[in-house]
Amino acid sequence: MVSCSRCYLHRSIRVVNFVINAIGVAMIVYSLWLLKKWKDGVDELDLASPVPTPWFIYTCLGVGIVVCLSTLLGHSIANCISNSLLAVYIVSICSLLLVQAVIIVTVFYKTNWEMQISIYIDENHEEFKNFVLFHVEMCCLISISVLVAQLIVALLAGILWAVGCEPNLHCSSSDPPNFTYSFLDDRTSSLSDCTRLPERSFQVHNIGQTLRNSFA
User: Fold this and answer.
1) Is 8 helix (H, G, I), strand (E, B) or coil?
2) Quick check: 69 and 148 in contact, CB under 8 A?
3) Which residues, at least 6 apart from 149, have a Cβ–Cβ distance to it below 8 Å?
4) How far is CA 165 from the centre of its chain?
């Protein structure tokens, strides 16, 4: 089978989408676990005033949900045969990535979580403070990594749109050789030869009989 760049692009998009989808599911599970730990730690503080909303956890959770939904769409787009649908997907995923980037910058880089947490958590709960600060960094790192992976998918989709997403016929799944057709063809020719053999013998017999009659 002749190799084709379109086939490699289709397969690459499927593989990258599968990996990102698994990461998205892991982000959802991680965020739910982290949210439970946050609520348990806040309950032990016994504070009169409410603590700030853990937007870093909700951001990680929201990114995980969006990633799962976008990769499901990406799986279907990887099998599409229309450049228009692929263009709509590229515009949609780029707009979504722009929104994600703005949210990540706002939540993780424009908010001083260490200062906000230090206001509500005293030195008696230093372990919970270190736990929260560590997972703030983890949520930021995971969100950025997934954003980069989604950019790779958008780049592959853009390359596929540029070369054309219609698959070539030689890139389709190869079928096993049709031995039955060749056998039947040979058998048909053999049968036709066998049917012609008596006719030839009859013609030769008639010619011989004519020659004998002429010499007699």
Assistant:
1) helix
2) no
3) 16, 19, 20, 23
4) 15
Cα–Cα distance measured from residue 159 to residue 78, given in angstroms and rounded to the nearest whole number: 12
pTM of the model: 0.70
DSSP character for 109? I
In sequence order, the 6+-apart residues with CB closer than 8 A to the CB of 174 are: 1
Residue 7: alpha-carbon gap to chain centroid: 13
Q: Are 179 and 133 in contact (CB under 8 A)?
A: no
Q: How far apart are CA 150 and CA 88, in angstroms?
A: 16
The pair of structure tokens assigned to 23 is 């990461």
Euclidean distance between CA atoms 145 and 139, whole angstroms: 10
From first to last of its 216 residues, the chain has per-residue pLDDT tens of 334 666 777 777 788 888 888 999 999 999 999 999 988 888 877 766 677 888 999 999 999 999 998 888 777 766 666 778 788 888 888 998 999 999 999 999 988 888 888 777 766 677 888 888 999 999 999 999 999 988 988 888 888 788 776 554 445 444 444 444 444 444 444 445 545 545 555 455 555 566 555 555
Task: Judge contact between 100 and 66, C-beta under 8 A.
Answer: yes
